[in-house]
Amino acid sequence: MLRRKILNCAPNVVVAFMHSSYLPVGMALVGTGIPMVASEHIGPDHYQTRPFQLALVMLTPFMAQKITVVSEQIKQQYGPWLRRVMVVAPNPIAAPSTKNEKRAPRARRVLSVGRLTTQKNHGCLIAAFALIASDFPDWTLRIVGEGELRGALERQIREFGLERRVELPGAISDIWREYRNASFFVSPSTYESFGLATAEALLSGVPAVAFEDCPGTNVLIQNNVDGILVNESRDRTQALSIVLKRLMASPEEVERLSHASVRRLEAYSLPRVLDTWESILRDAAQATTSTQFDRVKIS
What we know:
Layout: H1 2-9, E1 14-17, H2 19-28, E2 36-39, H3 51-57, H4 60-63, E3 66-69, H5 72-77, H6 80-83, E4 86-88, E5 109-113, H7 122-132, E6 140-144, H8 150-159, E7 166-170, H9 175-180, E8 184-187, H10 196-203, E9 208-211, E10 227-230, H11 236-248, H12 251-261, H13 270-286
Parallel strand pairs: 1-2, 2-3, 3-4, 5-6, 5-8, 6-7, 8-9, 9-10
C-alpha cells in the first residue's frame, strides 16, 4: 500500500520520520529508484533494550540516502556504520514575541514538560521534590504532559502526600504561558536526542536544570550561567533535590540565571534549519540511487 501511494505521488524524494516509519517506507521503495531521507529523532540509548529494532535500523544505509539526527552529539554516539550516512538537522525553535507583554511576577513553581514515560524520569523529580517540600511550603511542582505513566506518577504523589503540591495537568496548548509562569524549569530525563522543552524554557527566559550526563540536553545548558547541570554522583534523586533546594532558597540566583538564559539559540533558528533541510533534500533528490537493494526490481 505504501509503495502504491508513493508511486502515485511520483516524488523526487521521500522523507520518513522515526524508525517506525522509515523502515517500512524504505522497504516499500526498494527497486523504485526513489531516494529516501530517514529522519531519526532518538539517540542510541533508546535501542539498548530493543536489539531487534536496532538490527532493523542497521539496515537503513541500504535504503536511505541520508539519515538525519538532531545534534552532532547524538550523531557521534552511533557507530561508524550508521554515522557515515548521518547528517545533523536540528529541531527549529522560536519563542513567540513578548515585546508588548508585561511579564507577571514569577510564581514559586518548578516546571517540567514532557511525555509521562520512563525516559523522561519524572518519578525521580517527584521524589527529589518530596525530599525538600516541607522546607518550602509555598512552592509547587507542575509536570505538563501526558503518557502511560500517569497512573504510576499519581500513586507516587499520593504516597508522598503531595496531592496539593504536585500538579499533572496533562497536555497544554499554550505551553509558552507555562514557561513564563514558572520560576525555573527541570528536565530529569535520562537521555534526549534534543531537549526541545529545555531550549524552549531558555528562550522564555527561564533557567533550566538537567542532569550533566543527559545527552541532547547538556549541550543546551551553560552550567551556572543560564541553568544548572546536576552531577548525579551515585544518587540521582538526592543530587537533584540539592539543586532544587539551592534554587528555591535563592530567588537572586534564579534571577541571575534568568537574565543569561534570554538569548537566541541561533543554530536552531528556523531560517538556519530550513537551509539545512533544503540542502539535504536537494542532495538526496539529485543523487543517483545506487544501493544494493536497487538491483532488485519488484513489480
